[in-house]
Amino acid sequence: MTNTALMATYSPPDILFERGEGAYLFTQEGDKYLDFISGIAVTAFGHNHPHLVAALKDQADKYWHSSNMFRVESGEILAERLTRNTFADRVFFGNSGGEAVEAGLKMMRRYHFDRGDTKRTRIIGMEKSFHGRTIATVAAAGNPAHTKGFFEGDLGFDHVAFGDIDALRAAITDETAGVILEPVQGEGGILPAPKGYMNAVRKLCDETGILFMVDEIQCGMGRTGKLFAYEWSDITPDILASAKGLGGGFPIGACLATEKAAACMVVGTHGSTFGGNPLATRVGNAVLDLLLEDGFLGQVRQHSETLKSGLEDLVSLHPDKLTSVQGLGLMVGMKCLIPNVDFLTKLRDNKLLSGRAGTDILRLLPPLNLTDAHIDEALGILNKTLKNW
Ligand SMILES: *Cc1c(COP(=O)(O)O)cnc(C)c1O
């Protein structure tokens, strides 16, 4: 039975999962699905991971919520660990990716306001980007399919082609406050920034005194084989949005920033009732325990190589259906000649869960702690599905 009381914003297939275990989801009827989409890069350690479950249950027995009127120890610890392992000095917690981006967008404007540069309010985003579904985040991404009918004008956002440094240089004016981009574009098509682009953006931002914000909601938290994807370049951003994998399935978002960028976020400038709640931050800490284990990110990079070379083989075997493999780490896209939605549906019929991105990409976001056996199983289902096309 489909629930007609829900708004019609989604159109899920008629499948009901009952439980999950590691890389698998199970229905009531006992059907077993290999989950290579992870709730869109959220269940980064698969389903029902004992360490995450233990953290959540332990906190559930203590207390759930006090609001930010009071200190939250697990939130302070999580913020401290996030800053110790990144460029950042400060963290603001929200409950979702959109909120993490929103905090950063506000910060970019307020930063210049506090310096008396009140003209600098405009923010430059990238074409084909995705930053969430709030009014400001759809305006930042500028995708007409997401903005249509919701507001007039551009709400202070400009857009340039991702990867085109000359276009970005030309777009920066004395009204620009900052730049926001995904180091690996997710929804737009699993597209890593071209080589040298992150460095060039950093240099432009430094030269013009504007802030550089990265949206690592999908590509961060180990997804690309580094804790955050900006580490593949040799620069650091001023602001970073994280969410998705950060909670391993429990809703949490975080906006990380340097002291310089965050200095404007004083008492009264921003807030969230649930943000940094004990349940969410206990689980966030448990996720970090697993992610920061010695050698773990190396394993992600190794599994990425194995998966990608297997996918390259499939491209060679089925050149009439697939053209290439792209992405970084375990954030993988397969460029399709067949309709990606049909491919996804047939894979699901064959018990492999995947996603789509852009117009012609099949998106694979397996759990980060997957094994070679999971990779073999997924490649087998992909090959069978393509053979029987
Ligand atoms: C998912 C995503 C968001 C939005 O996150 P929500 O939790 O849905 O608000 C923002 N940016 C990127 C890159 C994402 O992948």
Structure description:
- The chain is an alpha/beta fold and 389 residues long.
- The protein has 2 domains: 126 residues, Aspartate Aminotransferase, domain 1; 229 residues, 3-Layer(aba) Sandwich (Aspartate Aminotransferase, domain 2), CATH 3.40.640.
- 36% of the residues lie in helices and 19% in strands.
- It is built from 13 helices and 17 strands.
- Strands 4-12-11-10-7-5-6 form a 7-stranded mixed β-sheet, sandwiched between helices. Strands 1-2-3-15 form a 4-stranded mixed β-sheet. Strands 13-14-17-16 form a 4-stranded antiparallel β-sheet.
- A hairpin with a 4-residue loop joins β2 and β3.
- α3 packs parallel to α10.
- The longest helix is centred in the C-terminal third of the chain and has 22 residues.
- The relative contact order is 0.17.
- The mean pLDDT is 97.
- The structure holds pyridoxal-5'-phosphate.
- The site of pyridoxal-5'-phosphate (PLP) has 14 residues, from α4.
